[in-house]
Write a structure and sequence with these properties.
By secondary structure, the chain is α/β, with parallel strands linked by helices. The protein has one domain (2-191): 3-Layer(aba) Sandwich (Rossmann fold). It contains six helices and six strands. The chain has helices at 27-39, 54-65, 90-93, 97-104, 117-131, 146-157; strands at residues 2-7, 45-50, 71-73, 139-144, 174-180, 183-191. Strands 3-2-4-1-5-6 form a six-stranded mixed beta sheet, sandwiched between helices. Strand 5 and strand 6 (183-191) form a beta hairpin. It is globular, with a radius of gyration of 16 Å.
């Protein structure tokens, strides 16, 4: 199976973290989503899965509409639960020791009242492993969030989560993994244009 891991396109507010369920794409993000769908027009995509948040759903819908296939939402693809940090600005978090710990020791630091990255990794990898038998020789699109995609890449490449921030995942970027019973192969990482 080829898994196209796609980060949602740009949103208006880039300075805050969290799920923010109703955050729409910006005008530039709408254009990015259209361009991404055009770039992938020659790919035979059998299914499109998405996080349930508006920004990911919209990105997925633009991709799926051109193919006439439905978007399947799954909470396993949701943004990390930042707990007490949800909807806070990066600037307000910078002085916090707990924020510094989360960004240097992600494998064992929990967001206050939220998730650990290992839990995020477990849910996204669990979803990918569950869909492999249904699409063994197919290509599927997974529209999600930067940390979710990073955690999947780290798992399949054997990279510790503590190093995950070394992997750039840009808005509307494409990361491609070939997954099968024998393992995984990274074919593209953070591809933003062909």
């Amino acid at each position: 199976m080829l898994a196209l891991l796609i980060r949602h396109a740009l949103v208006e507010a880039q300075d805050r973290i969290g799920r923010r369920p109703d955050l729409p794409l910006s005008q530039e993000g709408e254009e990015q989503a259209r361009q991404l769908a055009e770039r992938l027009q020659t790919w035979d995509i059998a299914a499109v899965f998405s996080s349930p948040l508006v920004r990911t759903l919209r990105t997925a819908q633009v991709l799926a509409e051109s193919r006439g296939i439905p978007v399947q939402t799954d909470t396993c693809l949701n943004e990390i639960d930042f707990g007490e940090w949800d909807n806070r600005s990066f600037k307000s978090l910078e002085p916090l020791e707990s924020w510094k710990a989360f960004n240097t020791f992600r494998s064992s630091t929990r967001c206050p009242g939220g998730e650990m990255m290992i839990e995020v990794q477990s849910r996204v990898v669990g979803l990918l492993e569950r869909v492999i038998p249904s699409y063994p020789d197919a290509t599927i699109a997974i529209v999600s969030h930067a940390d979710v995609i990073r955690s999947a890449v780290c798992h399949y490449l054997g990279v510790p989560l503590d190093l995950s921030l070394r992997i750039q995942i840009s808005p509307a970027s494409l990361t491609v993994l070939r997954l099968d019973n024998c393992g995984a192969e990274l074919l593209r990482l953070n591809d933003v244009e062909e």
